[in-house]
Predict the 3D structure of the following.
Amino acid sequence: MAEITGVVWNTKTEISWSAATGSAAELGGTPNSIRYDTIRANGPEPADFALGECVETDGTDTTTPELFVPGVGNAAFYLVRGGNSCPSEGPLGSGIDENGAPIPRNSPACP
Ligand SMILES: [Ca+2]
């Protein structure tokens, strides 16, 4: 499955993204079988998603309500992962290291 893209703030309290299309077959499922995990990492700096929190687990739609407000001087970062019950979780895409090389994004397992 490809990385979930188009992650944006839909409103001040809701995150949305582009539905996984075409890639569902890679998981052996159908588009309606895709479930989404929304993961938040905190920091002032771009944060380590391996230490992140699951905001929503196995959501069936392409939005997540989010009321978290970072403290002054801090920030929150979000990634969305698609998966289904085959079981398989999709990737979170890659970050970029200081030399411009791609590095994998790690994340917690959402229960
Ligand atoms: Ca949802």
Q: What stands out?
A: Residues 41 and 52 are 4 Å apart (CA to CA).
